[in-house]
Amino acid sequence: MADRRDPTTLPGRPCAVASSLELIGDRWSILVLREVMFGNHRFSQIARNTGAPRDRLTVRLKGLMEAGVLERRPTEESDRYEGYHLTEAGEELRPVVRALLAWGDKWAVTTPPLRLVHHDHALVARTYCVTCGDDVEEADLTQEMLTPGWDLGGRLAAAGKG
């Protein structure tokens, strides 16, 4: 990825969530990813389906390419046109977008406007640990701060900036 950053350079707790949101966290960026994941690679399709102002969309697409999430390559229809496609880093955002869709279906909309179908049924996804194969249950997780001067409560008093 082109735009990796030191997590201690952002305000607040050093965290990959904050760094991730710096790269892909605004509305238009997530909607761009949704459209590319749906197979819409041309600027005009992305603009129409996100509703983003064209100037803002241009900036978001550039930022996603600089972050290594999207790349431009010839479209399947014609070598004359380039489309936006997911990189490996972009592909790894698919579960994130699916999780936002599922959360939104449950908590943000009156009626789900879209359904993901897995074989012959609605998708109900779960998270599992690749190392051991177990489903991830919140009760089985612990958090371990790796950044010196921090614990789960926040910055340690001895680290300054109380």
Question: Your description of this structure?
Answer:
The chain is α+β, with helices and mostly antiparallel strands. The chain has a single domain (7-142), classed as Arc Repressor Mutant, subunit A. Helices cover 36% and strands 11% of the residues. The chain contains six helices and six strands; from the N terminus they run ααααββααββββ. A two-stranded antiparallel ribbon has the order 1-2. Strands 3-4 form a two-stranded antiparallel ribbon. It has a two-stranded antiparallel ribbon with strand order 5-6. β5 (150-151) and β6 form a beta hairpin. α2 (27-37) crosses α3. The longest helix has 14 residues, at 94-107. It is globular. It starts with 15 loop residues before the first helix and ends in a 7-residue tail after the last strand. The mean pLDDT is 92.
Characterize this entry briefly.
36% of the residues lie in helices and 11% in strands. By secondary structure, it is of the alpha+beta class. It has one domain (7-142): Winged helix-like DNA-binding domain superfamily/Winged helix DNA-binding domain (Arc Repressor Mutant, subunit A).
Give the N-terminus to C-terminus distance in angstroms: 34 Å
How would a crystallographer describe the biggest sheet? 2 strands, antiparallel
Uncertain stretches of 5 or more adjacent residues: none
CATH superfamily: Winged helix-like DNA-binding domain superfamily/Winged helix DNA-binding domain
Please state the structural category.
Answer: alpha+beta
Q: Please identify, by name, the CATH architecture.
A: Orthogonal Bundle
Report the CATH C-level class. Mainly Alpha
Radius of gyration of CA atoms, rounded to a whole number: 19 Å
- How many helices does DSSP assign? 6
Overall mean pLDDT: 92
CATH topology: Arc Repressor Mutant, subunit A
Q: What string, H for helix and E for strand, traces the elements in order?
A: HHHHEEHHEEEE
Provide the helix percentage.
25-40%
